[in-house]
Amino acid sequence: MRIRGVLILLISLIFSLQAVAQEYDKVVDGRDTIYYNYVPIQQQETQRKVRTTFSVAPIYTPATSFAIGAAVQSRYSTAKSSNALFSAAAVVSIRGMYSVGVTNINPFSGGKHQLAVSISVSAMPTKFWGVGYDAATQNNALNYTRRHYSAEVEYLGRVAKNLYLGPRVELAYNDCKDDFGTISHLLSDKAEGKIIATTISLIAKYDTRDSRSNPQKGLYLTLRPFIRPSFISNTTDTSFGVEGALSGYQRLWKGAILAGELYALLGSQNTPWQFYAEVGDSHRMRGYYEGQFRDVNLVTAQVELRQSIWRGIGVAAWAGAGNSFGTFEKFCWSQTLPNYGLGVRWVASDSLVFRFDYGFGARVGGRLINGALFSVGSAF
Fold first, then answer.
1. 45 — pLDDT class (breaks 50, 70, 90)
2. CA dist., res. 304 & res. 306, Å (int)
């Protein structure tokens, strides 16, 4: 019995050591059964995963001409966030345009809240026709350089399923100069081409899309009322406005997606001209020279059919229209600008889409407005 007791004790010690790797087990030795259990010690993850991606792509728009863009994105985890994002991007064109931006997005509390901070610096040689439809169709263009520096902080909180709400504060500096100095002498602008403005916005977003970079179904609604108080800007008057967009996506047949968007940017009459709405960019009214048509207000609509063909390569066709105007009393249907075009898509991954578009617009001075665009990401 003494030898048997010693053996039982030794077996108990051995399997007590093995219990470090097992939560519960038992040892059977003849007629004797030994049960043991333990409570595992929670291990703190000492190394947090960081996923970094790099991308380089050519870019082309009628305003910037050929450019090269480079971006780096890092997704990482913190003690309070499991899917934080840091991104940096730079673009340089052969016309002297450059842009550098840094963004940090930190979701926390299981995605119920999100804090985003971004900083950007850009300079763009461009053209100025004036303000309004008549200026865009009758005036000769003036070359000038627009410099823009901004810092932005945004907080969003989830208030219901797919619905987010929160404030945004942006501090921006705009400096517009031509060969003769500031170009504000064309507009008698008291700020003399230099604007320091603080924009305070309330953001509301409703998002049911299945993907942000390449959506195939769902709705996306964003609404942003904003104000630029004069006491924290160098403008003489307080200006205000609202920006909104509604887009929807629907599968049709195999590989086909129908996408549509309504967009509006409306401002008060004392809005500084540097913040006027401009027709033509890589997202809306594609093919127009950005800024040829500009005014206080802008409304656009577009529908696009996207068809996948083979291994991520696809084609697209779109049609739309837009109108920039000073006041609703001066809104003129005959000044609505058409827009249509064709494009090629390459979906390299779920988050990376290369896009080539060729867009057409109105006929001005006997010339049909048209232009090519090469960009990254879906138009909307």
1. very low
2. 6
Go through 109-140 and write b for each residue having 16 or more CB atoms within 10 A of its CB, e for each that does not.
Answer: eeeebbbbebebbebbebebbbbbbebbeeee
Domain assignment present for 323: yes
Structure tokens at 144: 């000038």
295: domain CATH number is 2.40.160.50
Q: For 61-78, how does the pLDDT look when each residue is reduced to its tens digit (9 = 90+)?
A: 888 889 999 999 888 887
Strand partners, 321: 301, 338
Q: For residue 44, is it within any domain?
A: no
**Helix, strand, coil content of the chain in percent (nearest 5):** 10, 60, 30
- Taking phi over 0 as left and psi of -120 to 50 as alpha, with beta for the rest, 51 belongs to beta
Judgement on whether residues 319 and 179 belong to the same structural domain of the protein: yes
Say whether both 9 and 56 belong to one domain. no
Residue pair 34/47 in contact by the 8 Å Cβ criterion = no
pLDDT tens by residue, 111-130: 889 999 999 999 999 998 98
Say how far residue 249 (Cα) sits from the centre of its chain: 18
Mean pLDDT, the chain, whole residue set = 85
Q: How many CB atoms lie within 10 A of CB 186?
A: 17
Same domain as 189, residue 125: yes
Indicate the number of domains in the chain. 2
d(CA 370, CA 380) in angstroms, rounded, equals 20
The amino acid that residue 193 corresponds to is G
Task: Measure the CA–CA gap between 237 and 50, rounded to whole angstroms.
Answer: 47
